[in-house]
Amino acid sequence: MKKYSKEERSWVLYDVANSAYALIISAAVFPIFYKSVAASAGVSNDDSTAYLGYTIGIATFILAMLSPILGTIADYRGLKKKFFSFFFILGTLSTAALAFIPSDQWILLLACYTITAIGFSGANVFYDAFLVDVSSEERMNEVSARGFGFGYIGGTIPFVVSIALILLAQKEMLPFSDAIASKISFVITAVWWGLFTIPMLKNVYQKYYIEREPNPIGKSFKRLSQTFSDIRKYRTLFLFLIAYFFYIDGVGTIIKMSTAYGTDLGIKSESLLIILFLTQIIAAPFTILFGKLAKKYSEKKMLYVGIIIYIIVCVYAFFIKSVLDFWILAMLVGTSQGGIQALSRSYYAQMVPKEKSNEFFGFYNIIGKFAAVMGPVLMGITTQITGNSSYGVFSLVILFIIGIFILVRVPNPKEDATVEIN
Fold it and tell me: Which Pfam families match (predicted)?
């Protein structure tokens, strides 16, 4: 592969930037901190896990409503960067604000977390759509995979600093508690996110766009309706989005609920943090490997591999009995979580009309967000009904089975992207 351009490198660095949030806030430190705060307030482990699932569902539902509308408007010249910047700023400021919420206010903590999730996911809608502006179709798989891969590597740096602060505070080697250390990690996340976003803001521009016109909001709603009709005309797009709806739901739920699940199993917080750190280390090379193998064997075959690994994860989680089992589970997730996300993004990017990338990525993200409502709620309800988090994780296996069943029927986008559905 030829040398990466300045735009491609800047785009990849945003994955480094937001990976700190994905790891520290979504997956590791915040869930453990929240579980501790909720437990201190008398909330049971199963209920606090369920409430976290419901909160994630609410945040993703809100963004699901906004994504296609904002994406349609953002296709006008010069607006993609502005929308990206707005959600990026919302995400970083609210992430820093988590550090200033009183430690006994678990409901307020979840409310602020909802805003951070909207900022993080909202920025990603436009970040993903920028892939068509920074790279060519033949380079998209490797560039997308490189973004996730470098993101996993870069995200470990603030994560390690956060772990060190928390563990040292727990051992009373620092003049503050582990709760304060967790709050410091939220500020570190916001600062890291901000610093590594600077190249993206400086060097990445919207190359494909629609010229502005009178009454842009009204026209955007009309184009949104037309886009929905257009999606149905693209057989590959339509089928892929249905498959994506199911399998990405399971992926996102496992990533976001893993530490809460580990806590329910009785695994200590320091062990969870170390496990998650090593998962990131494993995920980085495997994500890049997925990108290279996709070039040799096709994106679709590598997506099959990733989905099958997640099915194994769900089944294995049902029988988990020890910390070693959780280690094995986490390592399995690490081998495929980045690859399946990166290839889904680049596979879809090859199908969409470039000048309407925000519109079509708006639908891509609304599918992901609506799916992300279902998974955590499904896991939360199953956990509360059975009183066992293992049943909650196992319930996700049906999502992967449906996803791979539909993905098998997705035609080659290079050959059949515009075939209408009869």
Answer: ATG22
Nearest to 399 by CA among 231, 239, 254: 254
Residue 232's CB is within 10 A of a number of other CB atoms, namely: 12
**145-180: pLDDT as tens digits:** 888 788 878 888 998 898 889 888 988 888 888 889
Q: For residue 56, is pLDDT > 80?
A: no
- Name the DSSP class of 25: I
**Alpha-carbon span 189 to 210, nearest angstrom:** 35
Q: Could you tell me the residue ranges of all domains in the chain?
A: 8-203+231-416
Helix count and strand count (H, E) for the chain: 18, 0
pLDDT of 369 reads: 62
Phi, psi angle pair for 403, to nearest 5°:
-60, -45
385 exposed, middle or buried (CB, 10 Å; 0-12, 13-18, 19+)? Answer: exposed
CB 359 within 8 A of CB 223: yes
Interval 15-42: pLDDT, tens? 999 988 988 887 778 888 888 888 888 8
* Over residues 77-99, mean pLDDT: 92
DSSP annotation of 356 reads G
Q: How far is CA 286 from CA 145, 260, 339, 407, in A?
A: 9, 25, 7, 22
Closest CA to 158 of 255, 101, 107, 92: 92
Question: Average model confidence (pLDDT) for the chain?
Answer: 81
The CATH class, in words, for 8-203+231-416 is: mainly alpha
* Contact between 314 and 397 (Cβ < 8 Å): yes
DSSP state of 22: I
Going by C-alpha positions, the residue among 25, 49, 26 that lies closest to residue 36 is 49
The pLDDT of residue 190: 96
Length of the chain: 422
Lowest mean pLDDT among 88-97, 208-217, 320-329: 208-217
Phi and psi at residue 130, in whole multiples of 5°?
-70, -15
Total Cβ atoms within 10 A of residue 278: 14
pTM over 0.85: no
Cβ neighbours of 422 (radius 10 Å): 4
Q: What share of the chain is helix, strand, coil (3-state, %, to 5)?
A: 85, 0, 15
In order of 32, 63, 165, 357, 377, the CA distances from 257 in angstroms are 11, 19, 23, 31, 11
Helix (H, G, I), strand (E, B) or coil at 210: strand
Contact of 159 with 26, CB cutoff 8 Å:
no
